[in-house]
Amino acid sequence: MNTAYPFVPALREPEGSPIRELFKYLSDPQMISFAGGYPSAALFDAPGIGAASAQVLAQRPAECLQYGATEGAPALRRALTALMAERGATVAPEELLVTTGSQQGFDFLVKALVEPGSLVLVEEPTYSATLQALRLAGAALRGIPADHEGIDVEALEAVLEAAAAAGERPRLLYVVPTFANPTGATLSLPRRLRLLELVARHQVVLVEDDPYGALSFDGAPPPSLLSLCAQVPAARPWVVHLASLSKTLAPGLRLGWLAGPAEIVRRAVIAKQVSDLCTPPWLQLTAAQYLDDGRLPAQVAREVAAYRDKRDRLADALRQAFGARIRFALPAGGMFLWAAVDGIEDAAALLPHAIAEKVLFVPGAGFYAERRPRAAFRLSFAGADPAQIGEGVARLARAVAQAAPPHMR
Amino acid sequence: MNTAYPFVPALREPEGSPIRELFKYLSDPQMISFAGGYPSAALFDAPGIGAASAQVLAQRPAECLQYGATEGAPALRRALTALMAERGATVAPEELLVTTGSQQGFDFLVKALVEPGSLVLVEEPTYSATLQALRLAGAALRGIPADHEGIDVEALEAVLEAAAAAGERPRLLYVVPTFANPTGATLSLPRRLRLLELVARHQVVLVEDDPYGALSFDGAPPPSLLSLCAQVPAARPWVVHLASLSKTLAPGLRLGWLAGPAEIVRRAVIAKQVSDLCTPPWLQLTAAQYLDDGRLPAQVAREVAAYRDKRDRLADALRQAFGARIRFALPAGGMFLWAAVDGIEDAAALLPHAIAEKVLFVPGAGFYAERRPRAAFRLSFAGADPAQIGEGVARLARAVAQAAPPHMR
């Protein structure tokens, strides 16, 4: 398949996103999708964003349209620092980098810290694009199991000790501790503190990917790992926090940030210099204006109310359709529900039946470092039309009835 | 300097931009800068861009603010394909990727094709961020000399043959053939054709970085290497063309594109999936609207007139101040003039004197793969205030008078 460029080694043969491969089915207007991790476009505050953008362009046209500082526009850096402080984390200017979406922050960490063959630890299951980025960089991936309370810190400790005994040092440890992708799970507070102790003791860079924390359905979300470094100060030089406005303001603005130790931020800034130089300043100033105007909390409240309702509709429909045959933990925030149904050993084999029934989900296999069939699958409720959730689940139940072995139908 | 993260190997100790290190001096309001490669903010069409952005947001809010296709928004892909056709190159949809600035396109090529130790060829001198990106990736850099007619194709052929004899295959060959950064030089037509024959014969991916081609002061620019593949069809699978709206529309939009063989574009798309997922759709649709409205040619004409005038002012002032002691070739377009003055063996040693006189330029050393003192330096005329060019050159002459050996003052 790669005959034209035979000099490219197998290592670099890249792997496409398992989720994006499903997008071709979205052109079918009959399709009901629980697949993509898209926020609901119906909730976007286009008028508010448009007004902020027109205001900053009129006031500061040259700053909007010229190259900007690689670290980010000062106005947005100030606004994000204030947002982090509200969320309990004090971040100095040299500890913050604005990125073109939070995924870019992870890409820069990989570029700065990972080489072919580097050992990298990820909780399992985990965000598929993280696995994709690490595989593209040639990392040696090792999965650490996670359950409904997040990463298994005992299993992690065993792996860290075995690695240390073997003279290996993981370059990164990646977790989504709050309303995780794909599981919706949230790392418990005792595990958060234990995780920080472990990375401090083993001197491993811990990446806390936190795009969903603001979407908390039951009051404030748990404190971030970054903010908990106040209790475990030895962990602070090892924690890098990735955050985003994609799930709260709008993903199309491609605005995220990286907060972490100055030495790591310095390396990420240089990776950004050679990548996109700077995140579009106009969009940065637009977001800063929106944040400074105090509009984000009301927007997030609208999203939380809508997503909580959709989660409840989805959970109710799943229980009604599958009864005791389905297993899932109710997510306390975010966009995803992770489920498995008795009789389905490989969710990837269920998918063609679902597509035939005109419903989409993401099979679990794409979220694991080790590739083998997985029973579980991811359902995204955030982007779904609430009126269609019940019908989508009914289609899923028909697909399961076709795919399950006869005695399980 | 890196005690906190001792596990990071020396290979990955990144190098900052030699140009960005000068930016701290720009806060001095007395400073006259010929340093940064910034277009003139005074020429930005902020009203036109603002109107296009408001229009697309009103018409297609969800498309503007939601995640978009990694390959780029269909409307912009169509507009850019049309622009390429006007410039003589036919590009199929699967041969085009929208990037967040053209530099990101090069970053993806590096990610897809270069590993630590990979041999990469660059014309010398060349764009400093290209060297930075390649060094960050651990490439083995080899410079090929260039003169006022661009890369020396005889020298290139000798290097390619020696590499082939040694069983080495360069992963990339990077050139800026039209109004080059830093030299302003333009590759002659005979050399263009010879270059294409060489990459076809040696099966080396040729990166044609072309951000400046539209800024041609004397009629149409020479045909791009990509368009010349019509005459050397065997070269087509080996040519990747990088282009940008940064130097014509506005750099702050961060809109560039990569046009090349589908197999390479496919790899770049995957690199983009794990980096920024997509370029901000709102800005893409804004640019597409602007292009579809036919506004770009008039904007480029304004820029060409202004930059030609500034080039002439700079060249006249240099000749007047230095007479026969200065050597430079008049650039036929773009933003840069590359000069050397008798008596200055190391332009980096001249720089502190220039800063004391309150004028900035970029010393030549940062544009070479091999690091050693260089006599030449880069003067950017595009961003300069035309009324200050003469005074800037007078300051430069005073700095030279201080830095040159006594008999040369």
From TrEMBL, chains A, B:
One of its GO terms (molecular function) is transaminase activity. Keywords: Aminotransferase, Pyridoxal phosphate, Transferase. Its cofactor is pyridoxal 5'-phosphate. It comes from the Bacteria. The keyword Transferase applies. Residues 58-396 form the Aminotransferase class I/classII large domain. Pfam families: Aminotran_1_2. The keyword Transferase applies. This is 2-aminoadipate aminotransferase. The lineage of its organism: Bacteria, Pseudomonadati, Pseudomonadota, Betaproteobacteria, Burkholderiales.
